[in-house]
Write a structure and sequence with these properties.
- The protein has 16 helices and 8 strands.
- It is of the alpha/beta class.
- The chain has 3 domains: 158 residues, no CATH class; 144 residues; 88 residues, Pyrimidine nucleoside phosphorylase-like, C-terminal domain (Aldehyde Oxidoreductase, domain 3).
- α3 runs antiparallel to α5 and α14 runs antiparallel to α15.
- The radius of gyration is 28 Å and the shape is flat.
């Protein structure tokens, strides 16, 4: 599990201004370095390049890059708006973190700053003959990089910010978060099972000091603080939980009166912010996919095909659940509750069943998706799939007009119920 300071550093690296500022600084350094490095160049380079020749190239680059950068920023903002209105506002950070877009804007900005500073240096006589030759060589390298990024950017714009691209990004974020959680089902700590939960109920609660969503939990810091105090911590919230002052974050076991330093260390290990993050929160990615489907099913959009596509993606994402490996115990002083499959499946299917109740094509795909999960791992999915199937059937029966459509759904739901009954009556199977 990643430490909080590393996560904060990663979040900083995702900010679009960071690569832009880095490339801008690189352009500034490259332009100024030519005034101090001429002695290292060959003697024959003296006078090869005229000042006006280099200046003309740089002026063309500066004027062009300013326009291209402004245009690219407007495209990026349009993509953000398109994703927020056509898919879900929760997908906007995924577009903002796009490495291709950040690299293109950084290259254009760095090239513009380099050109501007170099022009100033040439006009003020900062560079000698060797310096002009070095500037010419660097300019060619910068120009080649800009052309490559421009070609890359044009190809990237074919899909950037469009609905299929946004959906794919959300699915990838959800699948990555769930895969990571399956690898570390208890975030590297010990499972908070029923026996431990009973003991934790008698522990001393540690309350949150901020209002917002838990984005990440620094398990290493929690384990270190608990080991130093000679206690065990039982977490009562997971990444994605909404907390506020008075809401429990954890409980101390055995019950002990914590000092202010311990409470401060525990609270500081929880990153609380205004918005949820995809990193340690698989439910957020699944909910974002469901939001896209719900918007597609609204009367204003009326796009059941997108909802059907989302159901297929839900099946693909949730299929990672049975692949849980034996968890590695890295933080023995921290007990962590597991992610509930019932919550994850409700996040995926409840809203689609409600909003698509009157659309037979959506309801059929919903029932087939639940049946696919139940068939894939009956001991894991069948019981919850049967519950959601019955719930969706009740909603559909109240909304559909034709009796033959209702009968079709009843048959599909009965198949899922049969799979659940067979899984229950059969030998004990591995639980999710």
């Amino acid at each position: 599990m990643i430490a909080l300071w590393k996560w904060n550093l990663r979040q900083l690296g995702r900010q679009i201004w960071v690569p832009v500022a880095a490339f801008g600084l690189a352009g500034l350094v490259a332009a100024l370095a030519a005034a101090f490095l001429p002695p290292v160049l060959p003697e024959g380079s003296r006078g090869l390049i005229a000042a006006n020749a280099v200046s003309a190239i740089l002026q063309i680059m500066a004027s062009s890059l300013l326009a291209v950068t402004t245009f690219s920023i407007s495209i990026m903002l349009s993509a953000f708006s398109s994703a927020a209105s056509g898919a879900t506002p929760r997908a906007t950070p995924l577009l903002r973190d796009d490495r291709v877009t950040q690299g293109v804007l950084a290259t254009f900005t760095g090239g513009f700053i380099y050109s501007l500073v170099s022009i100033i240096g040439l006009e003020t006589g900062l560079y000698g003959p060797e310096g002009r030759f070095l500037i010419f060589l660097v300019t060619l390298a910068v120009l080649a990089t800009i052309v490559w990024q421009l070609v890359r950017w044009i190809g990237h714009l074919a899909n950037y910010g469009r609905l299929p691209d946004t959906i794919a990004r959300v699915e990838t974020a959800a699948a990555t978060a769930l895969d990571h959680r399956m690898t570390h089902p208890f975030l590297g700590g010990r499972p908070l099972d029923e026996g431990a939960l009973a003991l934790a109920a008698e522990g001393v609660p540690i309350a949150a000091r901020q209002t917002g969503y838990v984005q990440i939990v620094d398990m290493e810091a929690l384990d270190r603080a608990a080991a130093r105090a000679g206690i065990t911590l039982a977490l009562t919230v997971l990444p994605g939980s909404f907390v506020h002052p008075g809401e429990e974050l954890a409980r101390l076991m055995p019950p002990a009166r914590p000092d202010d330093a311990l409470v401060q260390a525990i609270c500081a290990a929880f990153a609380v912010a205004d918005l949820r993050s995809f990193d340690q929160d698989p439910r957020f990615g699944v909910l974002a996919l469901t939001e896209i489907a719900s918007r597609a099913l609204s009367p204003a959009v009326n796009d059941p095909g997108t909802a059907i596509d989302i159901l297929g993606r839900h099946l693909r994402v949730l299929s990672a659940w049975p692949e849980r490996a034996d968890p590695e115990l890295s933080f023995p002083h921290v007990l962590v509750p597991g992610l509930a499959l019932a919550d994850l499946m409700s996040d995926a299917f409840d809203a689609i069943a409600r909003d698509g109740a009157s659309l037979i094509e959506v309801q059929v795909r919903l029932q087939k998706t639940l049946r696919g999960l139940a068939r894939q791992a009956p001991g894991v999915f069948a019981a919850e799939a049967a519950r959601l199937s019955r719930r969706a059937l009740v909603q559909a029966e109240a909304a559909l007009v034709l009796e033959e459509d209702r009968d079709r759904l009843r048959r599909l739901s009965a198949q899922i119920t049969g799979l659940a009954e067979a899984a229950t009556s059969g030998p004990a199977l591995r639980k999710g």
